[in-house]
Amino acid sequence: MRFGVVIFPGSNCEQDVVHAAEVLGHEAGYIWHGDTDISGFDAIVLPGGFSYGDYIRCGAVARFSPVMAEVIRFAERGGPVIGICNGFQILAEAHLLPGALLRNRGLKFICTQTTLRVEENSCQWMDATPGTLLRIPINHNEGNYICDPETLERLQGNGQIVLRYCEADGSRAEGGSAPNGALDDIAGICNERGNVFGLMPHPERVVDPAVGITDGAVVFTSIARRLAEVV
Amino acid sequence: MREDLAPELAPQLAVELGLKPAEYDKVVEILGRTPTVTELYMYSLMWSEHCSYKHSRKALRMFPTEGEHVLQGPGENAGVIGVGDGWALAFKMESHNHPSAIEPYQGAATGVGGIIRDIFTMGARPIASLNSLRFGTLDKPRQRYLFEGAVAGIGGYGNCLGVPTVGGEVYFDEAYEGNCLINAMSLGLMREEKLTSAVASGPGNLVLLIGSTTGRDGIGGASTLASQEFDEKAEDKRPSVQVGDPFEEKLLIEACLELLEEGLLVGLGDLGAAGLTSSASEMASRGGVGLDIDVTKIPAREEAMKPFEFMVSESQERMLAVLVPENLEAAQAVCTKWGLRSTVIGTVTDTGRFVVREGDEIVADMPAATLAHDAPIYDPAMTRPAYLDEVQVFDPITGVDHPGCEYVLDDIVLALLASPNICSRRWIWQQYDHQVMLNTVVLPGGDAAVLRIGDTGRGEMTERGVAVSSDCNGRYCYLDPYVGAQIAFAEAARNVVCSGGTPAAITDCLNFGNPEKPEVFWTFYEAIRGLSDACRAFGVPVISGNVSFYNESFGSPIYPTPTVGMVGVMEDVSKHCTVAFKAEGDVVFLLGETENEIGGSEYLKLAHGVVSGKPPALDLELEQAVQATVLAAIDAGLLRSAHDCSEGGLAVTLAECCMAGDLGADIHLDDDLPAYASLFSETQSRIVVTTTPEDAEKLVEIALEREIPYSIIGTVGGARLDIANRASLTLEQLREAWEPALERALAGA
Amino acid sequence: MARFQIFVTYKKGIFDPPGATAERALVSLGYDEVSSVKIGKFIQLEVADGTSEERVAEMCGKLLANPVIEDFRIEPVEEA
Questions:
Q1: Which residues of A are catalytically annotated?
Q2: Going by beta carbons, is chain C in contact with chain B, meaning 3 or more pairs sit under 8 Å apart?
Q3: Which class is C2-77 in CATH?
Q4: What ipTM does the predicted assembly reach?
Q5: Which residues of A touch chain B, with CB atoms under 8 Å apart?
Q6: Which of A172, B363, B519, C31 could form a disulfide bond with B385, CB atoms 3.0-4.6 angstroms apart?
Q7: CATH code (residue A208)
Q8: What is the pTM of this model?
Q9: pLDDT value, residue B143
Q10: How many domains in chain A?
């Protein structure tokens, strides 16, 4: 399959996603934010970084890039879209996913390994058994997920909370296990249809065995398996 | 020609701008007339210490600068070495001490921005940053503010660029209280054939200014701040500190690399200290050409800016490119694609003169090369500082009461682990993106950062790697600048070697006080001599660097701090080694042997409040033999772990190996030393390594071949670090002391 | 040229970490009377004469503020 990785001005993880996809034997190509043709790609990735410097708000400007209109149409037709870190922030700003990402509770940028628990596998980007623990790093200043109580209830009821931060043994600490203070320890959510996935952790950073563990591969292989079934 | 300066007023302005009377006379002699205001500003900045190295240049000639790996030595924006298969690495370290002491976040951020521009100016994609920081002690709120601000600034800038910050070092000592040090190092990767020069050539070619607008910010910022001592008025200088825009810099990186990739440029330079004056005059003098620049063409950020303000502004995130007219359209299209402003501000001429005009009127006209090259070179007076006799005569063995019993030593081990100079640096590196680009093989916290060589997501990935470390113990340099500088080199090399890298070249950042004081200059000269001797002994050249003088406050200099940034090459990055103990039953070796050397040690300072004595001795031959043993053993696949002994001595080294591996160790030391010395002595040329029991004999053979002293000191296992008769602590106790210590110190606890 | 001032603040109930931190810091400095600090954004906008407040509100809703988490208030600036 072929991943299309969007480059916004200020994106900085696009090359990492392409490398991870290639390590897993898939094809990947770049899409410039000013382009409006995204045909030829099976899945779209909005990578991490600081699009437009994260000035105004993270993702606030990028959502108006010409390519985003196409990405939204692609998602509405059921096409698989993933937003990683800044990509998640862009998806939230574009209202493809509910809620918003606030500044980390500790007011500091955090780059560290986290343990995540797979909560649901109805998302097309996550077919691991619920309860599976994944070691995937986070790297952000604004990853503190928030939404209103009704939205939270809906996310919980529909099985849209795909990944939660947890302790190393899979439990959740009483005061929350999210290093950024995220509501309900939310690390990643999907839309109701399960084709649009947004997460703060960086799965592409833990794919290549030459530089460490490979817990992030499941995100890319899940969607590949899913698309293979459909075809 | 605008004559805007009366002959009788010119000398006074010259003095105000920092030119000495003799230097002013030389300007008049070069021009053959009274300089204009613009000319005087340009000369005063280019001839400032920061830009001209007028006090240090002669001493720096001692450095060896050539070697088998060197593709570009000192003289360009960064040095470049070949790392195999046509890959080249550009790297350099630079100080941003003075701006950071005034505004730590922006000072540190723009320091990172400046060094990264030096790297991509060479045609290399920046792939990693390190930093070397010094502050006063954290019990002072001001020091906590400076430290937290600098770390946030380094992270804020580097994270946005997507360049991983992979390593560094930090020390806290009263000597840096009035003058913190922020040294930033950056590395970039390119194919050898892409090596670019900051040169202007080809009369008729165009000069293109790319990036941010030009304002009054930072006028005389880095160059004047870095060329004078601090006093109580330093805070008033706040407006002259520049504000960084990492987003603009990220766009500059991408656009400039694309311009070079497309072959659209003749030369590329960055605007750093002394702004347009510096980059333009250096590019012109390298190419032996002249330039004609019209300041009215420069996009201004503020109204009514004067020509001199355009010429010396240190507004950040600007690059200067020279290109043939036929490529202008294509080059500007690349800039526009990346959302960057680009403006033709002048042309290359064959006159050799740097002409600045404001519309039709010429406001400066001078031989371009005289700005970059004709600054006076001084031979500063030197005197051995009187304090050295006092400190070196002190015998730390008899001069203080050392503890004896085991109980007390446990406490000292824990206190050392909790020292801000030794404890976990997690609080720092968690604020840095250290993984982006997916080449960080060893995460921060080890001896050296290890990076895979590869053009992630764009081109080829390789099995090669580099190990990088920056080091300097300022206390040792204070007690003996010659030996201290050698130890800075030796430790940086040792760190690189412990990770599996073969030392290839260094960059340096030489932080000292006022060179016009003979006692300060003596320490500078001795440190250069020490560093040069170490470089020659190891066959490792200096390929780039930076001198930062005037690091004083209220008349007292900092410790001499010649920071070494060492790069080692690895043919097979998968063979890298880490500090962590790996498995129960592994055999623990100490390569080298411990002497009772506690002068200048962290133990002496922490337990006795004393910074005195002689620093540990360094035997360069032994150092090389120990390092060669480790490299040979890593290459043969024998080592499970390797970690050098530095601040805090063997006890701290062992504790760090245990904590990193989550394994204890059972250790027996038979060194005939008092317990405090065997645990805390900072004897050089020592490395703790482990092997499987089966491989132990093979390691012994290698050590014997190299004729180095070694001892088998124990085995890995259990949940305690037990050093027979000296200290015994659980892993939990070690962690409790080491891990949260920095946060605790910052909480003011 | 018309001028507007725009104040962007977090909606009620959204945790404001910088505000909370400033609040704690002020209290620890001895300003016991401080009971709440909220930190938001202040934007100065210059637009063509005759631009309506509704149009400025549209800019806020679309880009300058995020209606999911933020409220905004617009004040026209009277020229002296």
A1: 85, 202, 204
A2: no
A3: alpha beta
A4: 0.96
A5: 9-20, 22, 28, 48-50, 52-55, 108-112, 137, 139, 141, 202, 204-205, 208, 210-212
A6: B519
A7: 3.40.50.880
A8: 0.94
A9: 95
A10: 1
